[in-house]
């Protein structure tokens, strides 16, 4: 999907937030924000993809701030916040009536985790009420039956993660998916190759010991979402071989929808955290979504007709 | 006062908002936002004054959009919104116990009006609850006793307006002040000389017939706040002759605090609608303030000492 005019406000807020995060020196904060403005101006146009625009600008920020991981502290906080909730959430899922209900609850839990995000939300925003609200809400777009059917016949599943914090909740869904495949190597979890925004990296995955119940790889790069042309051979091989792909969060959605992947069994799980994404999907702001690639194509075709 | 790093987010949001306001054509919206970015980059530095930076950027927007009054519709809406409340507010003031209480209530009413502002707030924000909350709240900084004393000895009062909408509520305070001066020409109300942001202009003043109980002039220019060097002779004469000045809103506060006006009896009336202004004054976001120039100097001196 392409950016909307209002994406200018969001990207500059991210840069302001992170400038204040990496230094207390106001003169330096001005230098960092000002240093990103020409790059924002260059990348901001009606054909830009939000995740790709964000990638270029956040990479530039890392360079001019000489800071390889500006969100490090915030990611640790996000992981801690998620850990505080994980037991409650697990208990809720245990009480599920059946397989489909359990799957839905797992998906909602990972969307609750997707609330922990300093891209669309300001660092100062209190995300705890949003986690609770999401857990107690319904999926606005619900392709869970389709996903359950596909899981039952899946040989190899690729699970593309989004943010730190969120990844703690992702484990619940990953554990459930694992029951449907034969081997630990048949569920592949992908995190970022290098730090970018608050996205989960191998460090997060290792701290959470995800390798105990899945094969963990990286995309091989510091891309917000996925730019296939910049991914590692290893990632591309898994992407090709997987007969079911689950992509978490807005960045993966924004970027993967730029490719023709109609032949893939691909599911997007996300909270629509800004108007441009909500509008593109056809839901309201802050709605929770489990959307198959197939369903998305139908929706877009209907919009084109009307 | 000077801008803070986060002022970048606010100014770009204003430009996005107003681009969407003046055209439905998305390509044109991108052109307008992108067209303002180099000017934002040029004006944005640690020594910039928010109201002055805003002036340059909004003037540039008017030029590249070929639209002399981008906020025209929004200002009309703001005036209508305020008119819906004016009777309720007048009734509240009528029930005042005494002169000081009446003055405070009038001041709070004009601050409630100051909630109607598309500078710091997004166009989509619902301002009605904010008006009601302000009316029922207290002044966080309250120099009303000092103002009442000064009013009693005032010969000539200059009242510098801020926004459309707000100006409807200003009338209540202007009418009260009028009782303390001898002649209609001794209370001078200043609006903007040309449209800028959602600031009140002569058209707003004329529609509200303010000239029936005050002398109405303009600043002679389209400045957010006041840049004395750009004001008309007429305004400067009234500014010089007034022995009591009341300046409404953040723009006037941001800009007038850049001058040495310690010799003036000057009062700022505003709602602190963003963190940089709230921090500078030493109050919380959304607090209501009636602050004398004298008190401000004392506060700033104390901050310097600590």
From TrEMBL, chains A, B:
Parts forming coiled coils: 79-106
Organism domain of life: Archaea
Keywords: Coiled coil
Damage-control phosphatase ARMT1-like metal-binding domain sequence ranges: 4-289
Any Pfam family hit: ARMT1-like_dom
Presence of keyword Cytoplasm: no
Protein's UniProt name: Damage-control phosphatase ARMT1-like metal-binding domain-containing protein
Originating organism: Methanococcus aeolicus (strain ATCC BAA-1280 / DSM 17508 / OCM 812 / Nankai-3)
């Amino acid at each position: 999907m392409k950016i909307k005019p209002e994406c200018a406000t969001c990207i500059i807020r991210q840069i302001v937030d992170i400038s204040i995060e990496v230094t207390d020196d106001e003169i330096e904060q001005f230098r960092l924000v000002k240093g990103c403005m020409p790059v924002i101006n260059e990348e901001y146009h009606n054909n830009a993809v939000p995740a790709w625009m964000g990638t270029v600008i956040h990479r530039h920020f890392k360079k001019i701030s000489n800071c390889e991981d500006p969100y490090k502290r915030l990611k640790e906080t996000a992981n801690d916040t998620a850990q505080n909730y994980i037991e409650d959430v697990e208990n809720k899922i245990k009480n599920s009536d059946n397989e489909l209900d359990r799957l839905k609850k797992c998906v909602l839990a990972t969307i609750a985790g997707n609330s922990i995000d300093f891209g669309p939300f300001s660092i100062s925003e209190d995300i705890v009420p949003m986690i609770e609200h999401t857990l107690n809400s319904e999926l606005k777009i619900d392709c869970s039956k389709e996903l359950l059917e596909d899981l039952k016949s899946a040989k190899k599943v690729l699970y593309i993660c989004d943010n730190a914090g969120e990844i703690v909740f992702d484990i619940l869904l990953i554990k459930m998916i694992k029951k449907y495949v034969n081997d630990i190597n048949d569920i592949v979890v992908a995190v970022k190759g290098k730090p970018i925004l608050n996205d989960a990296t191998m460090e997060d995955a290792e701290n959470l010991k995800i390798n105990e119940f899945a094969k963990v790889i990286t995309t091989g790069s510091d891309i917000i979402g996925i730019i296939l042309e910049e991914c590692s051979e290893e990632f591309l091989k898994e992407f090709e071989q997987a007969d079911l792909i689950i992509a978490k969060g807005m960045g993966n959605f924004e970027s993967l929808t730029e490719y023709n992947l109609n032949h893939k069994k691909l599911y997007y799980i996300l909270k629509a955290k800004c108007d441009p994404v909500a509008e593109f999907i056809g839901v309201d702001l802050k709605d929770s979504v489990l959307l198959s690639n197939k369903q998305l194509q139908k929706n877009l075709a209907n919009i084109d007709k009307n």
